[in-house]
Write a sequence for this structure.
């Protein structure tokens, strides 16, 4: 860490952190307020950057950090955000704030507000890297937030029929986690999905596009993938742990290993043969963790080569949504990006960890990352949930309307009351602004 700036502070000073990946807390604090940090090691490994563990009271941005006083903003930004993402730390020393970083950071002065400073920087990055303007997103329905991993093929068919009956303007039916037997074994169906290709054909016969969830760079402890190919893991014989979920340890696929790359090709080619042309690729932070790989490249280079491979196989017209994804390293590589932790029925996370499912963390991240929308990609603020059980559904609908580029419903559609149905219809049908900042 090298000191890169010292800033005189006052009672009016605020600091702004951008986190590593989709779920990493990102927001603005009054100086002195405690920053949002992980509360347990497994979630830290999932939702936060592996190389970063700031001391208590230290503010921290991954490649992006801002300090503002009134309309004077100092922005600290990674010089080369898709190659190297320095961690930027800020600690108080008396009435000064000492900023340090472990890589190349550009310091920019801006008059206005923090979102405006971030947007001006993002415009320059897009011009410099020739990032094409994002395509308009299709509308969707996603199985996750009603059925979670218990989803069945019948649930999908039931909602497919419901969206027809209710005349909802939904382009894509996206099957989330639960169709596969294990995380990593994407072509092995769970018992609740007797005919996966048949189900996708059925979706298309109903005039909708077919979408699927994968976590392509994740290898779970119980998977056949791990049993058969332990040499495909990042870290080799000492595999790097990337968290714990679904009641098991999680490891990372080495996207530079020729065998692993062939496997990814087979999976996504098979999906294309099934008529799937919308992909929610999740937990992709795993592809970027530091560790030993077949090709001696950095985590970020390995991550980008994994995304390039997926894009090459699915083709330019398929729609690619990143989730659990390092933000800056994904610039130019996805059509849409989840910018937040998961929505949930609850307003505040019971665990106290803002990276975990709850409306509060989803809203803070969605607001802090509005500047990305229409520049790097289409922002996905997470799904529309409008059923009565959502604690603060009016506020969630308002959030989607004011920061949602991607619009996907994720309720059991037959369980919606009239407010829920009207709101879902409105959010799916309303025009999407090209920018929110
Ligand atoms: C499927 C889900 C949904 C959801 C994704 C992702 O343990 N964790 O920290 C954790 C974070 C997010 C998460 C699951 C676990 O949700 O965001 O939309 O696709 O995976 O499993």
């Amino acid at each position: 860490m090298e000191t890169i700036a010292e800033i005189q502070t006052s009672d009016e000073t605020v600091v702004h952190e951008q986190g590593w990946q989709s779920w990493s807390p990102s927001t603005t604090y009054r100086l002195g307020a405690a920053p949002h940090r992980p509360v347990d090691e497994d979630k830290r490994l999932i939702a936060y950057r592996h190389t970063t563990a700031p001391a208590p009271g230290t503010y921290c941005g991954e490649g992006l950090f801002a300090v503002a006083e009134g309309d004077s903003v100092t922005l600290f930004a990674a010089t080369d955000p898709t190659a190297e993402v320095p961690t930027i730390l800020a600690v108080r020393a008396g009435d000064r704030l000492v900023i340090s970083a472990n890589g190349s950071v550009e310091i920019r002065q801006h008059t206005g507000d923090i979102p405006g400073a971030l947007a001006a920087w993002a415009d320059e990055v897009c011009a410099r890297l020739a990032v094409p303007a994002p395509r308009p997103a299709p509308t969707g329905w996603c199985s996750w937030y009603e059925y979670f991993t218990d989803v069945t093929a019948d649930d999908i068919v039931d909602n497919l029929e419901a969206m027809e009956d209710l005349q909802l303007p939904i382009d894509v039916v996206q099957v989330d986690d639960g169709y596969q037997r294990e995380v990593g074994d994407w072509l092995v169906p769970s018992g609740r999905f007797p005919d996966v290709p048949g189900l996708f054909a059925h979706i298309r016969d109903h005039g909708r596009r077919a979408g699927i969830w994968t976590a392509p760079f994740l290898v779970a402890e119980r998977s056949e993938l791990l049993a058969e190919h332990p040499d495909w893991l990042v870290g080799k014989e000492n595999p790097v742990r990337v968290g714990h979920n679904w009641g098991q340890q999680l490891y990372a696929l080495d996207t530079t290993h020729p065998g692993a790359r062939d496997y990814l090709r087979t999976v996504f080619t098979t999906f294309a043969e099934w008529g799937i042309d919308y992909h929610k690729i999740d937990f992709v932070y795993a592809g970027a963790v530091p560790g030993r790989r077949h090709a001696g490249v950095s985590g970020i280079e390995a991550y980008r080569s994994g995304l390039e491979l997926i894009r090459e196989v699915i083709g330019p017209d398929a729609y690619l949504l990143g989730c659990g994804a390092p933000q800056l390293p994904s610039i130019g590589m996805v059509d849409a990006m989840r910018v937040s932790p998961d929505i949930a029925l609850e307003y505040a996370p019971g665990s106290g960890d803002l990276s975990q499912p709850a409306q509060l963390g989803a809203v803070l991240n969605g607001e802090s990352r509005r500047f990305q929308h229409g520049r790097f990609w289409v922002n996905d603020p997470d799904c529309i949930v409008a059923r009565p059980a959502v604690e603060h559904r009016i506020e969630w609908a308002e959030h989607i309307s004011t920061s949602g580029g991607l619009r996907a419903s994720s309720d059991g559609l037959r369980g919606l009351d009239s407010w829920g149905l009207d709101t879902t219809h409105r959010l799916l049908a309303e025009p999407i602004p090209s920018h929110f900042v």
Q: What stands out?
A: Residues 23, 43, 46-47, 144, 176-177, 213, 245, 282, 323-324, 342, 356 surround 4-nitrophenyl alpha-D-galactopyranoside (CB under 6 Å). The mean pLDDT is 98. The longest strand covers residues 2-8. The CA atoms of residues 52 and 87 lie 7 Å apart.
